[in-house]
Structure formats: structure tokens, C-alpha cells
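sanity check this:
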Amino acid sequence: MAISFFKNMPPNLRKFLLRSILFFIVWKLLYHLVLYPIRIPDKQLTHITAYTTQKLVQLHYPNDVIRIEATHHPLPKENIFKNNKKIVGIADGCNGLELYVLYIGFLVCFPHTLKKIFAYALTGVATIFILNTLRSYVITLLNIHGSSVSEVAHHYIFKIIIYGVMFLLWVKYTRLNEKNEH
């Protein structure tokens, strides 16, 4: 039954799904077997996310000591301190890597020229990086002020915003194909 359903799909959708499955499998194998054990690019992305968050917090609190400290127990993360009080921890899962891969994966699986894929990948990754850094910054500010909204913002509000922006970028990208086909 599933095979007949797959055969009755429009060819473009079938091709997209096959590419998506292949991309997903290759990415997960590459990440878990090669990259994750050596923390590349997680270590670098987590650090740059923490560093840019630290710099934004320093702009907001210029008279306070804002510093970063890396820890590895129980998980690798970079903690941000304000006057020696831990405010937030940025773990590898918060560095945006999965968002970048998901975004680029869609672009690669949806047919277009390499030039357009590269241009949209660069623009999208930069946008996601900025949003993720602003997310970390706002969560840090919420934690500094002891806001009860911090957890809701972290787990729900910012995810809706980031995935919404990614969706809008994908819609714009897919409409390029519509313009080129007519």
C-alpha cells in the first residue's frame, strides 16, 4: 500500500522526498559518527553564540563583569556569568547547528541552480545566526531579571519565531522556481 502511494506521487514530490531522506541519513551518519565525537562544528558554534551573546549583554550592562566559562559536565556548554553569578548556559543543542542543517537541507533537496542555493544558504544561515544570538541574549536578560517567562520563551516563543522565519525564507525560495518556470 505504501509503495503504491509512493508511485502515485507527482515525480517532483517523489524526488524531493527521496533527496530529503538521503540528505537526512547522510547528515545523521556524518554528524554522529564523525563530527559529534570531536565536537566540530559544535564547539565553535557554541562558543561564537556565547561570545556574541556576552558582547550584547556587555552593551546592556557596561559597568558589570560579563564573562564566559566553558564546562564539560554533565554536558559541554558555555556559561555566561554576570558579576560571578551564572546567568545562562549555552549548550551545543542551542548553537543553531540543527537549524542551519535543516534550512540548507531543504534548499539542497529543492531543485535550483547552485548560485541560488548558495545565495539563499548564506542569507538564511546569517538570518538564523542573528535570530539565535538574539534569542540567547533575550533569554539571558530574562534570567538576569528573574522573569518566569524565560522557560516559555526558550522552549516555545523563540522556536515559533525562528521556524516561522525559516518557513518564510523557504516559501520565497520555492517561489523562485515558479517564476523561472513561467
Summary: Residues 39-64+91-181 form one domain. The CA atoms of residues 152 and 158 lie 9 Å apart.
